[in-house]
Amino acid sequence: MSNAHQIKYSTFEVLSAHVWRCALKARGVQNDKLVKFSTTVNGRSKFNHSVVPKGYFGNFIFSPVYLGKSGEIVSMPLWYAASKIREAVTRVNEDYIRSAVDFLSIQSDLTALASGPHTSRCPDVDVNYWKGIPFYEADFGWGKPVFVRQGGIGYEGQIVIMPNENGDELFVGINLFASHMDRFEKNIYDFEERRAAL
């Protein structure tokens, strides 16, 4: 952890960390409150391909979670939040997946484990990072799309990050309570503070 500030973090990690911190500040979450960051990881790249055949079409998605105190995420430099996101995502390996499958196989009611509004409301967030999904390559016979966005951001605390048509910019959509949005908009563009914290 002592050299975590010297590590090169991905766009996903840095952007998610920034948006997460801004959401915590906008919501006015108390420093000692436990907060949850969750995202999705494609298990195909983390698992032996002899078990999951190439081209397998079906859900193989896992949701790693980081649970920590709001005050640490907000008061520490940006790299700290990015490092916690990296920790959560890198825990998803073949052993993690096998353990998750074993756990799921003994559950009598899988609907109780489904994510949704009840799993990411204030103070938690759920980030969907869709940069790698080739939305703009889809062609159903009348040409490629000109503009793509998610149909909606279904619940408070949900964040969607997706590419523009050229793939050179990212769109960030977030669902927060109306009372938090003004503060969020102010925080998201406050990069002077971020520069000092890097």
Structure description:
- The protein has 198 residues and is of the alpha/beta class.
- The chain has a domain at 4-118 and 177-197: Chloramphenicol Acetyltransferase (2-Layer Sandwich), CATH 3.30.559.10.
- It contains seven helices and seven strands.
- The strands form two sheets. Strands 4-1-5-6-7 form a five-stranded mixed sheet.
- Helix 1 (11-27) packs across helix 6 (178-188).
- The model has no long low-confidence stretch (mean pLDDT 87).
- Belongs to the plant acyltransferase family.
- GO terms for molecular function: acyltransferase activity, transferring groups other than amino-acyl groups.
Walk me through the topology:
Blueprint lengths: L10 H17 L6 E6 L1 E2 L18 E2 L2 E5 H6 L2 H13 L3 H12 L11 H4 L4 E5 L28 E6 L6 E5 L3 H11 L2 H7 L1
Parallel strand pairs: 1-5, 5-6
Antiparallel strand pairs: 1-4, 2-3, 6-7
Helix pairs in contact: 1-3, 1-6
Family: Belongs to the plant acyltransferase family.
Pfam family, one: Transferase
GO molecular function, one term: acyltransferase activity, transferring groups other than amino-acyl groups
